[in-house]
Amino acid sequence: MQADAAFFYIDTHDQQISRFTSAGLGRVMINAGRGESYGFELSLRSAPLRDIALHLNYGYTHATFRNYDGGFDKEQHPIDYSGNHIPYIPSHTLNIGGCYTIQVSSSSWINSVALRADYTGAGDIYWTEQNNARQDFYGLVNANISCHLQQNIQVDCWCRNLFNHNYD
């Protein structure tokens, strides 16, 4: 068993974010004031048997604007996004999976075949500094078959989003 953990705190001054233009065609960078992010990441890896490997990765991030003067609305009321979540940063990230390796006879032109599957998730993700649009946590199942051939050649077949889950 192998484990890694990390804790972080980031205090950002003069933070810039990407915003869609009012026409919805393209993006612009704007100054969003001051932001704060903190959280942790945890990673576990294990090989309980010779041909089986398992992994788990999880991350939590709390990212908010500490001070963000958004100017004025159409009625000239001040806009303050302080305390809102920073766009495009998922609150949770998750990856859990495993690999089973089948060793093939040395007389074959295939050395081994590895079967992998994992579940990858992310969310909640806010899309605007107003926090009026967001993606709830979602997860995807992925699969992979790898053939390790002679002469250090590897051939892979991947399937991403195996169950065709819809997400933004």
Give the SSE layout.
Layout: E1 2-12, E2 16-20, E3 27-31, E4 34-49, E5 52-67, E6 69-72, E7 78-80, E8 92-103, E9 110-123, E10 125-126, E11 134-135, E12 138-149, E13 153-159
Antiparallel strand pairs: 1-4, 2-3, 4-5, 5-8, 6-7, 8-9, 9-12, 10-11, 12-13
Description of the structure:
The chain is mainly beta and 168 residues long. The chain is 0% helix and 65% strand. It contains no helices and 13 strands. The chain has strands at 2-12, 16-20, 27-31, 34-49, 52-67, 69-72, 78-80, 92-103, 110-123, 125-126, 134-135, 138-149, 153-159. The strands form four sheets. It has a seven-stranded antiparallel β-sheet, with no helix packed on it. The chain has a two-stranded antiparallel sheet with strand order 2-3. Strands 6-7 form a two-stranded antiparallel sheet. The model has no long low-confidence stretch (mean pLDDT 91).
H/E topology pattern: EEEEEEEEEEEEE
The shape, in one word, is elongated
Helix content: under 10%
Structural class by SSE content: mainly beta
Weakly predicted, low-confidence segments: none
Calculate Rg over CA atoms. 22 Å
Mean pLDDT level: 91
Q: What fraction of residues sit in β-strands? A: over 45%
Amino-to-carboxy terminus distance: 35 Å
Seen as an oligomer or otherwise, the chain set is single chain
Most strands sheet = 7 strands, antiparallel
User: How many DSSP E strands?
Assistant: 13
The main sheet orders its strands as: 1-4-5-8-9-12-13
Q: What count of helical segments does DSSP give? A: 0
